[in-house]
Design brief:
The protein has 204 residues and is of the alpha+beta class. The chain is 30% helix and 23% strand. The chain folds into two domains: 110 residues, Homing Intron 3 (I-Ppo) Encoded Endonuclease, Chain A (Alpha-Beta Complex), CATH 3.90.75; 68 residues, no CATH class. The chain contains six helices and ten strands; from the N terminus they run αββαβββαββαβββαα.
């Protein structure tokens, strides 16, 4: 199991941040001078400067390499979707799944707390995938399509197929059997898939 860093407590997060569940946007709240006291009596001045610069502005909105929002709270970096879950429900999620596959869509209805294995059942198609369908690939040596799936920690072969559509059907059926999310491996556009099929046939 992947262990994530512990999040700040819910009460503190609600003091620091405002969350709109309809837009998915986090914003910084104005901070009291007590957050900036350093024993030198500058707390009010520093708080005023901080609030002028940040209060009401979007928070934790830096995109990481995976297309998800992140940011720092008291010098520690957190993922925005995990912070949102803690604000709303008061618990640390194991992992957060964006149901529509859009890591920037932090609307509450698009987030769900899942296990690592459940999260693997709603993944984006890799940029390296050339068939347009996860688990379906062209095997040049056999001149056929291979369908496969990884489930319950095992790689399972679903067989070789002469027709691309049959390989895709086998993969989709296996996804249903193993409880994959309906958005898993969102398919390529029809025109892209058609061009791929035409290229394969021309090379055959």
């Amino acid at each position: 199991m992947i262990v994530s860093k512990q999040l700040p407590d819910q009460a503190t997060l609600k003091i620091l941040l405002d969350y709109d569940p309809l837009t998915g946007v986090l914003r910084w709240k104005a901070r009291a001078a007590s957050f900036f006291e350093d024993g030198k009596g500058y707390g009010d001045r520093v708080a005023a400067a901080w609030n002028t610069k940040f209060a009401g502005k979007p928070a934790l909105n830096t995109l990481n390499g995976e297309g998800r929002f992140r940011g720092r709270i008291f010098r520690t970096e957190y993922m925005a979707h995990r912070i949102i879950w803690k604000i709303v429900y008061g618990t640390d999620p194991e992992q957060i799944d964006h149901e529509d596959g859009d890591g920037t869509n932090n609307r509450l209805k698009n987030l769900r707390s899942v296990s690592h294995s459940e999260n693997q059942r709603n993944m984006k198609r890799s940029a390296r995938n050339s068939s347009g369908v996860i688990g379906v690939c062209w095997v040049s040596r056999d001149r056929r399509w291979l369908a496969s799936i990884r489930a319950d920690g095992r790689n399972l072969s679903l067989g070789f197929f002469q027709d691309f559509a049959d390989a895709v059907a086998a993969r989709l059926e296996a996804e249903k059997v193993h409880g994959f999310h309906k958005n898993h491996g969102r398919p390529a556009k029809a025109c892209q898939t058609l061009k791929l099929l035409e290229a394969r046939r021309a090379a055959a």
